[in-house]
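Lab notebook, bench 4. Still working through the backlog of constructs that have no structural model yet. Next entry is a single chain of 158 residues. Request: give me the structure tokens for it.
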Amino acid sequence: MAPRGRVEPPNGVQSELPDRTDQALLEILRYYCFSYACPKSQAWEEALLAAEAAFGPELGGVVASGMMRSFKAMRRARKSCFEFANPFCACCRGQLRVDERRMIGIISAVRSGNRRSVQSEALILCEGFDPQPMLHEIERLAQHLPGAKVSRRRMVFR
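Model written out:
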């Protein structure tokens, strides 16, 4: 059940991200992105509400905080803008941007314990700069997500 009348993700996003956890993380990510792009919107509040709606009142805050830390670490690493779809636009919400796909894909891979492509995807997302701080935050986030198979060994970029 979505707060404030939010609707289900549009079909385009559902087909590219069939996992409900990934869809929820994308929504949270987009609200944080929008909050940076348009600070007066205070869209970070919507990120918190979306996290609580998707993960419950206790885990929602933990997931929202983890997503913010992961996003901030990625922002510090890369130099160009992170391309995202406007979460408040019905047409835009249905499109999955390359940067969004990459970020959610990394989180999903870490959550499922699939480390094979994580390092290279993280390096691309961070535009060749050190992805380690972002990966550390994503590992912390992934531990709290449903179905997490996070390894105890920390991922280290070499």
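Notes after review: The two ends are 42 Å apart (CA to CA). DSSP finds seven helices and no strands in the chain. Flag for follow-up if needed.
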